[in-house]
Amino acid sequence: MKISKKDALMWFEFFAQLPEEEALLVRQQEIVYAAFAQIEEAVEHRREQMMKEIPGLRSLAGRTWYAGNPDKFSKGCRSCLTGTGLSAIRKTNKCNLECPFCYNYGELDCQPPIGEGMWEIGGTKFYEKDIDLLLSMGNAPTGVSYVYLEPFMEIEKYYSIIRRFRQAGIHQHMYTNGTLATEENLRALGEAGLNELRFNLGASNCADKVIRAIGMAKKYIPNVGIETPMTPDFFEQFMQKKDMILATGLDFINCAELHLNENNIDNYYGESMYISRQGYISPIWSRDLTLKFMKIAAEEGWDIAVHDCSNRTKFARDLNLKAKEGGWFGASGYACEFGRPPFYAFLPTLMDETLPFVEEEELPQGYRPGELYF
C-alpha cells in the first residue's frame, strides 16, 4: 500500500488522539506500517543520493559504512560487527552530566546499583574473583565494553578488572564524557591495558578541557576516538573546533544515529522523525548530518576513520551477535523502544514539505475513513 502523505497525516492525527489502551484494528495497523514504510523509503531515497557524493566511501563487510583511513577504524566496532563482541560490562550507575540525548534522561538519579564489589556481565552479577571462572568457560568474546553510566565517577575500581581481561587477550573499550579525565587516570587506564577509549564529545558541548583530554589519552591508550550521537549542536560545535580536535591525534569518530526512547523523545518534540525497520525511532536530521559530516571529512582528507554508526549498523550488529551466539536464522534483538508507536511524533514528518514520498496511490477500498471494520 503506497499510502499518500495526505492520507497518512489524516490517519496519524486520528491515531494520536486515541487512548493509549485502545488497540488498533488490523487494517489500521496496516495503514500504520504503510505510512512508516513510505516515510522510511523517502528518507533512504534522499540518503542514497547523499552517499554517492562521499568520496571513497567504504563498507565493512556490507554491515556498515565509513570514510577515511581503514587502519584507524575502531577495533571495538570490528569486534561488534564481525566478531563475537560486544559484551557490555556494567558498574557505575551515576553520571555527572545530564544530556538531552541520554537514554536515561530524567532518571539518572534512580538508576539501580549493580551492587557493592560486583560487576554485571552478560546480565549476570560477578565478583572480580569470579572472572577467572567466567573465562574458563571458553566462550570469551572478541571484545568487551565498559558502559553505564560514567565510569570516571569511580575509575579507580576499573583498573584491576581491565588487567584481568587484558591477560585473556580480549579487546576492551570504554565510553566516557571525558570531563573527569586527568593525566593520572588516563595513564592508569593505559597501564592496566585498556585498548580503546571513546569520548562522548557532544556531552560537554565540545569543551576545550575534554578535547585536551583526548590528546592526553593518545599518549597512553592505543586507540582513542569520539563517539557521540549526531545532533545539529554537535555538528556545529565540532566544525567550530575542528582543527583543535583533529590535532589531538585521535583515530576515529563514530557518528551515532540518535535513536529515542520514552525518556528522551520529548526533548526533540516537533522534529521530523522516522522509524527504521519498525525498530528505532530517530530524528531524520541525525543520519543526514552524519553523511554531510563524512563528506567533509573525505573531501578534506582527515587521517582518521569516520564511521556511520546508523540504525542499519545497529541492526547488522544484532544479527551478527545472535548468529555468533547460535541463534536461529534471522534472530535479532533489534526492536522498537516503544510498546505503542508515538503517533504524535510523526506528525511533523508528514507535514514536512521537504520530504516528498517517492510514490503515492489512493487508499484501497476498505481502508478509507468510515470503511474500517476489522
Attribute tags:
single chain, 374 residues, alpha/beta, TIM Barrel, 11-stranded mixed β-sheet, 35% helix
Describe the structure.
The chain has helices spanning 5-17, 26-52, 75-82, 131-135, 159-167, 183-192, 208-217, 232-240, 242-246, 284-300, 311-324, 347-350; strands at 58-59, 65-68, 87-90, 118-121, 124-127, 143-147, 171-176, 196-199, 223-229, 252-256, 273-275, 281-283, 305-309. The protein has 374 residues and is an alpha/beta fold. An eleven-stranded mixed sheet has the order 1-2-13-10-9-8-7-6-3-4-5, sandwiched between helices. A two-stranded antiparallel sheet has the order 11-12. It is globular.
CATH superfamily: Aldolase class I
Number of strands: 13
Question: According to CATH, what is the class?
Answer: Alpha Beta
The number of helical runs is 12
How large, in whole angstroms, is the Cα Rg?
A: 22 Å
Mean pLDDT: 96
Architecture (CATH level 2) name: Alpha-Beta Barrel
Helix content: 25-40%
Q: In which order are the strands of the major sheet placed?
A: 1-2-13-10-9-8-7-6-3-4-5
Number of domains: 1
Q: What is the third-level CATH name, the topology? A: TIM Barrel
Question: What would the principal axes of the Cα set say about the shape?
Answer: globular
Q: What would you call the structural class?
A: alpha/beta
